[in-house]
Amino acid sequence: MSFEYFEHTADIKFQASGKTIEKAFEQAAMALKQVIAEDVKVKDKINKEIKAKGKDKKALLYNFLEEFLYLLDAEDFLFSKVTNIKIKDNTLKANISGDKASNYKFTNDVKAITYNSMFIKKEKDKYVVQVVLDV
Q: Which residues fall within 8 angstroms of residue 9, CB to CB, at 6 or more apart?
């Protein structure tokens, strides 16, 4: 057998950072929103509280971001901002606001969050997370 590898340009990789892990997660969510709808200004018409759990911080980040894709697909909800993120014992709660997704035009169809190249690390004065999106 033989194999040949090609550069894969279908995925989008990003890093997000913040002074706290909560701020890094918030910025990761905003990066996801930017990929989905670029510079579209989503109105804050609907408020929700979301929760996510994970066996570790990476699983928590994955499940947190996956929640936004679920809301988009299952509830026609596109978020505009994330506030009041609280992380304790690999459980996350946050408040989000947004609007019906059908009121907006999307730029990319994000199929999934992946664990590919995902990391969460603490640097001197900030947390950095890296995520790859399957588009």
A: none
Q: Report the SS3 class of residue 60.
A: helix
Spatial strand order of the sheet with 46-53 comes to: 46-53, 91-100, 77-88
State the amino acid at position 105 in one-letter form. K
Sign of CA dihedral 114, 29, 65, 86: positive
Residue 42 belongs to domain spanning: 13-134
Q: What's the chain's length in residues?
A: 135
pLDDT digits (tens, 9 = 90+) for 52-72: 999 999 999 999 999 999 999
Write the CATH number for 29: 3.55.10.10
DSSP per residue, 5-34: -----SEEEEEEEESSHHHHHHHHHHHHHH
**92 against 116, higher pLDDT:** 92
In a domain, 1, yes or no: no
Give residue-wise pLDDT tens across range 103-113.
998 878 899 99
Q: How many CB atoms lie within 10 A of CB 97?
A: 17
